[in-house]
Write a structure and sequence with these properties.
Layout: H1 8-17, H2 24-31, H3 35-45, H4 61-74, E1 96-102, H5 116-137, E2 143-150, H6 173-178, H7 183-195, E3 200-205, H8 223-234, E4 241-245, E5 250-255, E6 258-263, H9 276-290, E7 297-300, E8 307-311, E9 314-318, H10 327-333, E10 340-347, E11 351-359
Parallel strand pairs: 1-2, 2-3, 3-4, 6-7, 7-9
Antiparallel strand pairs: 1-10, 5-6, 8-9, 10-11
Helix pairs in contact: 2-3, 4-8, 5-7, 7-8
């Protein structure tokens, strides 16, 4: 009966129970109230508790995550060493910028063919392929700037029974975020390599649905954001990398004269008629007129399928996932997860000039990019 007014009988019973050695949880069980509700009532009534622990109110999930983000912003972390800007070949043609759409890594998830080690192997392969393709494009013209679109579900969560099946969980949430094989360590390495190969790196982040807390908590409180803000602090002394972390569920990014709408994609729940692309296209039509500014391209993840569809001069790009043999996707939607990430190039006048789908299943063994990745 959370949220209901306390009756005089309940208050009287509470006055008796606080004199015992019962815990707040035990009192809550007797009164059919939450533990925090009991503690708050004790404070409001200014009751003298039998022991100090009875008054310690534990933070909610949202409060805990917000406190972590606050401390990340304020407390100095180990920052990256100075990384010298590379010399970019001049080339003969127009300068372009690269865009890497990075989405649905799901660190902490395991299947028959996926775990944290395989995620690392696939990431190394992705970076190798990205740098190789960029080097080929640099023959035609200079590419000095890389834009990284990160559209959420970086970690898998440990919310068993809600978003996660127990059999899918490889590591606890703390390790998914901060562990040696966690998201922060992996993406720190990725961005360091990019800084060694581009003059400027711009990172645009939106949160996914897996990083949210239990039911009833704010959708704006998300472990993806903890990852993003930690990375921002680690690189804050390097002027060649900029982070843009969305406050809302989306953000609009401008590159040259084109605008990109970034969102995770879970806003379209279940698709329409069981076909998520149909639902995404319908939502594109609505967002085209309801968003505060116009945009040309819509990038999202969530659906674990790679697609490109043009509609009314706007283009939808749906990203894949790092996870293979994803039983949830097969059971829920009827298709196998697409283990591909997308690299694009944008011309200052023509817009998107090239697109590459990089198949992570081709990553057969650990590779090396500019040194070892421990």
């Amino acid at each position: 009966m959370p949220g209901q007014k306390w009756t005089p009988e309940e208050e009287m019973k509470l006055r008796e129970l606080v004199k015992t050695n019962l815990t707040a949880q035990q009192i809550g069980h007797i009164l059919k109230r939450s533990t925090n509700a009991v503690r708050r009532k004790i404070r409001r009534l200014k009751l003298k508790a039998a022991h100090k622990g009875l008054l310690d109110i534990k933070p909610t999930f949202s409060e805990a995550v917000e406190e972590i983000i606050k401390k990340i912003r304020l407390v100095p972390l180990e920052t990256m060493e100075t990384i010298k800007a590379p010399e970019i070949p001049a080339g003969a043609g127009d300068e372009e910028q690269a865009i890497l759409h990075l989405t649905d890594i799901h660190v902490g998830r395991k299947t028959d063919t996926f775990n944290a080690l395989i995620a690392k192997i696939r990431m190394v392969y992705l970076i190798n392929k990205t740098l190789k393709i960029v080097s080929l494009h640099r023959i035609a013209g200079p590419i000095k700037v890389l834009n990284v679109f990160i559209t959420g579900d970086i970690i898998n969560s440990e919310d068993v029974g809600y978003r996660v099946d127990l059999s899918e969980l490889e590591m606890i949430l703390r390790d998914q975020v901060f562990g040696k094989q966690g998201a922060v360590a992996l993406l720190t390495w990725v961005l360091k390599v990019f800084l060694e190969n581009f003059e400027q790196v711009n990172v645009y982040c939106v949160r996914g649905n897996h990083g949210r807390g239990p039911k009833g908590t704010s959708e704006r409180t998300n472990w993806d954001d903890v990852v993003y803000y930690t990375l921002q602090v680690k690189f804050e002394d390097n002027p060649r990398i900029k982070f843009n972390i969305a406050d809302s569920f989306y953000q609009i990014v401008k590159i040259y004269n084109k605008k990109f709408l970034l969102a995770h994609g879970d806003q379209i729940r279940g698709g329409t008629y069981g076909i998520p692309l149909y639902g995404l296209l319908q939502r594109m039509l609505r967002w085209a007129t309801s968003m505060p500014e116009m945009w040309d391209y819509f990038f999202c993840g969530h659906w674990h399928v790679v697609s490109e569809i043009e509609q009314n001069n706007q283009v939808l790009y749906v990203g894949g996932t790092f996870v293979s043999d994803d039983e949830y996707t097969l059971r829920q939607y009827g298709w196998n997860a697409c283990t591909k990430q997308v690299l694009l190039f944008i011309h200052p006048r023509q817009g998107i000039s090239a697109r590459y789908k990089i198949n992570l299943l081709n990553a057969k063994k650990m590779e090396v990019v500019n040194g070892n990745h421990d």
